[in-house]
Fold each of these.
Amino acid sequence: MKRVFVFSLIICTMISMVFQPISSYAENNTDSTNIPVESRMALNYICSSDSLLLTATLSIKKGDITLALENATIEYSASNGAISKLLGKATTDQEGNAVFKISSAGLPADKEGMVSYSAKFPGNNKYPAAEANFIAKPAKIKLFFSIEDSLRLMKVTATQKNENGEDVAIPKETVNIYVPRLFSLLKIGEVALDENGTGTMEFPKEIVGDTIGNIIVMARIEEHDQFGFVQGENMSNWGVPKQYYKAEVPSRELWTPIAPLWMIITLLIMLAGVWAHYAYAVYELVMIKRLSKKNKPLF
Amino acid sequence: MNKNQKNSRRQFLKKGLIAGAGVAIGGGLVAAYVDVSAAETGEKVKVLTTDGEIMEVDRGLLKLPRVSIAESHKGIPGRKFVMVIDLGKCKNARKCVEACQKGHHLPQSQEFMKVYLLQDSEKTAPYWFPKPCFHCDNPLCVSVCPVGATYKRTDGIVLIDNERCIGCKFCMTGCPYSTRVFAWKHYPEFDEDKEPYSPEASSPGKEGTVSKCDFCPDLIRIGKIPYCASACPMGVIYFGDVDEDTVTNGTETLQFSKLIHDRAGYRYLETLGTRPCVYYLPPVDRQYEVDRGFGDLEESVKERYKDTPYSKKNKQ
Amino acid sequence: MELEQKNPLRDFSPQLERTSILGYAWIVFLLGVIGLGFYAFLAQVYEGHEVTGMRDNVVWGVYIVNFIFFMGISYAGALISGTLHLFKTAWRKPIIRMAEFITIIALLIGPCFILLCIGRLDKLHYLVLFGRIQSPITWDVIAISTDIFGCFIFLYLSVLRDLATLRDYELLQLPNWRKKLYRLLALGYTGTPEQQQRLNRATDIMAAMVIAIAIIVYSVLAWIFSVTLQPGWHSTIFGPYFVIAAVYSGSAVLILCMWVFRKIYHLEEYITKKHFVAVGVIMLVLAAFFGYFTFSDYLTKWYGSEKNDELLIQLLFKEFYWPFIISNYIGVLLPLLVVGIAKLRTITNITLTAIVVVIALWLNRYLIVVPTLESPYLPIQDSRAAWLNYSATWVEWSLTAAGVAIFCLLFTLASKFITIVPVTGLIKEEKKEDILV
């Protein structure tokens, strides 16, 4: 008997294990000692005209699965190799992003003006620490609008600060021109900067702005070895006014909440006609009843 | 002889019972050790807190805002949404179908986004045809609803209010594109969604009511494009505001009027007069041949297309 | 001298007073079928509409077919009673009550089938609370409620005289509560000239109204289909087509009722071959019209050979071949032959033809609803058989049987409540030579 019991136990355990896919983790059981847990950090950097935006994205990789980590505190610091300055802290949202904005002044820069930014997750008892770096030099892009020979032009200038703190042009770069839209940025052109750090482009004709034609235009240098991402914006009112349908009076169609007037009128007339006849018939019946009270039965 | 038979029978029964007990215990042991529920599909996204607590949330569906039913009748102000589908890039990967089903907590048998294998005529080429709801500007489904359960908003989106729907299915016969689906019974997937119902999320579904693709207004409100558009690995589906003249598939952002002009965009069955808001780009310069669409499919999905002219031709 | 005159009520009172063993057995049988239907209904409520054969493409099946069919039968009253009343034809008298009962009972049962098709019955009152005037279903709700009310009034007006007669007939052996009911419902009608005048006026008006309403109701029902864009439904002829088919089916059911009650209650003296021939001729004329409309519809679809029309016709001739032949060929030609050829014109033949016509028209409705839904603009690309082709399940058939059983039951009970042939008119008509044309 014992043999049978043990034997069947072993057999069925083996069979069950074949047919049950084993998950790499169980709920509320975060530490499986044989599955490696990695923390991953990514750091994005955008340099605007007056500020820097540092976006850190923290995720945890367990086996094959990568998950965003929410509510983690990320420490930002900037250094030039020698001095390190703590910039501040931010907490990740549910997508693992922590956004941090600082001014571009007062940052420790090295001899070439490069600043090393880092975002650090100190780690806790569950997850290891993670860090990401980004090295870039602050720069500035300016966007101007002008009309020359009845042509609408956009002029872009890119500058950086030299050792004396003066603005020096950035030559021979490619600047992409964008218009911010609902979900993303729409690229409307590209400008090549000359030796003086300036470039010009004709303003495209059919770009839709807001209802009165105002449009924000953004110029960006992207993925530059030295400058990272640099952007500058300006507002123009050369956009085509956006036309969207806004009814003064609610429309009456087949698919609107209120029916077309002719439908309502037709229906009411028909119903009134029919039910008036019904009312007449019922009236006659009532009169028959009334008459019977007066008469004696003849039949 | 009898005694022997009896004995052997008793022995057999005893052994059988014990074997059965062993099976039960063994199976139970394994089940307790393995987390069966998490192993089912494996594609759920879990958000970790710093304490290591896992909150289970569907992929992409991260605490989306849910507006009330009354609020959902008003469209997102100043917008008119449109979708552009590039038939030249579609290879029936069906990631759009799956992402939509996960995002809306749909069972396998309900698909808001359907992918057809169409061939317009005998000598024209077959192509894969993803079809969401077209959110028509002259929606017949809205016209025929007797109780006003489905409505068109100012931003062009046509939504369904489950609470109002009586399940008469007139809208399903009214739609010439076979877009709407009906909940023929209570699917367990509906119970996954614990949030309050909102027509903008089309979730949780309700037995006996109609539902359909909703252009994901809950995602739009946080600045994201619908599940299908972001899930497509080929970037087939573009989404945007037509008044702003821009559509994006998550990777590329293009000017809508230019796209339609350059690629000769059209609307499906234009002559029906429904004025749909989904434009198609004809499959010129295809990236993939049609048979790539049969590549990784499950058998039950492959079987769907067995009566199409393309499949019949290839059998010969 | 009047008292010595033969009182036909003596012939009819047994119907009202007694029920034979066979009658009770029949009622028990009907209750059994209705019980089965109720069980099927509970299955549908608990397990969801999945127990029916309907799926995402064929969303309307046997329930809607039954709805249209019963609504169509209800036209019998409008035609025979209403139209013939306005034309003052004398031979209509023995059969008008049957026709009006058919109307009312069918009008009560038809909408119940729609309710079976509705996904959320607990929200039904939204049709009234939030009804949208632009929707054909709202038009239908308004039209059917108006129709039921109108037909009730019309029925009441025509039984009023008999209620008075029954109230006054002292030899009637019925429980007191029934006699009291007759007194109450008879509204003190005593046959005075003034009362008769009022009654006649009301009946004339209602006869005209009932005809108009019936046409409107059935057209609205047709428009539910024809205003959609579905290939096969989007046909301009649907309005008149449905009206003609309705009248046609109504006349066939009337013949069946005439035959059944003639046999059971031994009414051979009152319902003669001439009546069968008269209604048979109506059926013949309507068969011709029905055939004409059907032919016109399919000829237009076939000749123009628009892609989806062609697909539909192919489907009809392949998967639905026999139903198509029965409903559109046999259902049209048989009445033409049987009633048209003098030798074939017997009561039995005409009744058998009526049975075939009823079946043919039910199939005709099925062929209108289901094949179109099986051939939409976007081809159904699915691997599940139930989603590709519609086949009704036991739930739907049980409920269909229950619907027919309720029809028969209500009819049986109605014939027990009041004489199935108007009696008052017969007493007067005894003086005239020939009550039949």
Note: The longest helix of chain B spans residues 2-33.
Amino acid sequence: MRILVIEDDLEAQRYLVQGLKESGHVVDEAADGETGLSLALSRPYDVAIVDRMLPRKDGLGVVAEMREHGNQTPVLFLSALSEVDDRVKGLKAGGDDYLTKPYAFVELLARIDALMRRRMPAGVRTRLDVGDLELDLLTRAAKRSGTEIELQPREFRLLEYLMRHAGQVVTRTMLLESVWEYHFDPQTNVIDVHISRLRAKIDKGFEVPLLHTVRGAGYMIRAH
Amino acid sequence: MAAKASLSLLRTQAFRIVLVYVLLFAFSTAALLAFTYWNTRRTLDAQTDQIIEAEIIGLSDVWQHLGLKGLAETVRERSQQSGQGLYLLSDGLRHIIAGNLDTWPRTVATPGNFVEFDYERLVDGKPESRRARGRMFALPGDFVLLVAQDVHERYLTTRMFTTTLPWTVGLILLLGLMGGALMSRNMLRRLDSINRTSGEIIAGDLTRRVPLAGSGDEFDTLAENLNRMLDRIERLMKGLREVTDSVAHDLRTPLNRLRNRLEEMASRFIAAGRDAGEVERAIAEADKLIGTFNALLLIAETDAGTTRAGMTTLDLGSVAADVVELYEPVAEERHISLVMVPPPPISIEANRSLIAQALVNLVDNAIKYTPEGGRVTIAIAHGAAGIDMTVADSGPGIPAEDRVRAVERFVRLEASRNSPGTGLGLSLVAAVAHFHNAELLLEDNVPHGLKAVLRFPHGALRTTPVKNAAE
């Protein structure tokens, strides 16, 4: 995947570029808004990671101009600013996701994976499958090996999100943001408890577990 | 609507001042008229009384010199003359001997003082009741003589005073009140525009300014002063935002580099097959530091209330239901029953994220400090003092003397030293309360435990928008 990194803190940029390359991505980098914008407009990228505060052209301005030119590359904002309404501003300007510095690299990686996945034409899906686990989005029914699994509405949303990102790492904050719409971390690890409940429902009594914990990162659902 | 408008008009200071002056003016006009009436009447009556007195003296002379017959003759003679004079001479049984009155007036009974009475007289062939003033005079031998003057003209003139007086006062009151209403409405309109603008500013739009009428009057001066004050506040708020932003930026950038390097180090250790445990613990410490910094920043920003973005009409019940649902598995794992009293539909103007976060902190605390088998209850109620969102637990509670301190930043009470936490949880709740003009109250739960109440002012109440059928 081709990723554009626009970041003026060269130390942070080096780390980001190196990490992404190690994860198998092709990366271009820019250290200011103007250069970043011309790169974004001249080459196709799968994702752009844009710092919020940039010299020569502010991150918000870069993304707004990209959108004006019809460029729909998914954008992840990185921001070191205080958060309260900066997130809203970022998303309004055309950003697709928002991450506050400092961040864990796995968090960033999981988010750009999710952004790239979102870009792929998925069509209107009415059914999600992972191995022998199936989720019917119309009847809101879950089955594993043909056996019906009773799910609470929120458990259904949780499983749906995990299955839509099957094979990808999903972090706790991503789950909190998309399933609960909370942009803050509760002190207690409530997500872990929800996951273990869900795991008890879908994996208990089956030989092959589908819901995996990725140490230091989050969770992943996969068939094998 | 009109009734309400006129009611608010009555409450204005301008109208009250006008009302006082109008009443004062009406009273003094009435007093002036009354005095004029009294004085005019006194003077005219004194004149009449002098004439009557003189006649009585004259007639007494006639009685003394000519006796009853002579007096009767004189009375008859005078009665014939056209003029104001009225006479009546009668014996002890009130049989009329002479005079130009047909009957003895009922109101005149005893001799002595001057009295007024009505009598009938033919005017242009028609009988007419007229007013007279006279004095009854006793003669030896039980004879009485009534000497009076027709004062009908004077009577009519003075009566005009008594009829005009209420009209005049009424008219003064009416015109005065109308003028007052007009004046206050004008004043009210000016004040309304000031109030509306300040309302919008309180609601968070710091760019608004009070419009000037351009008349240079005291209202314009007030508006100018307010605007100057607002400029200053806006500048200060902007400065504060810039400071928090640059503090955030200047601390997050090195923290970011620190975390990056630690992560890099950890992956290098792992790649080399070495134990990265120490580095991972360092990352965990860095994350704790970052967490504390983020919490502090959020508290500072929320406390300052520099932003009103994200304010919406929020159903407290649904926010609480979400939090209960998030924490229910955690509570169950610890054998604590987390219950929400079915809430009435109450919507307030609030920031969902902040309210949810405050509630999460309260519930998190409650579950943390409640022993196994305990109970945490969430309730939302519309009380007399405000709208209460309550989280009550059956834990050990907080001693009354520690409650004020418990809300302060970084304060961790002795009892909680060993449980994890930044010591910022309740401070954030207090900041969120402050942000919403609400109060955070820590009280005793019955029979034991802590009851944390977020009390929103009634003014925050909003009617829930009618939901679309499609939703």
Note: Chain B touches chain A through 48 residues (CB under 8 Å).
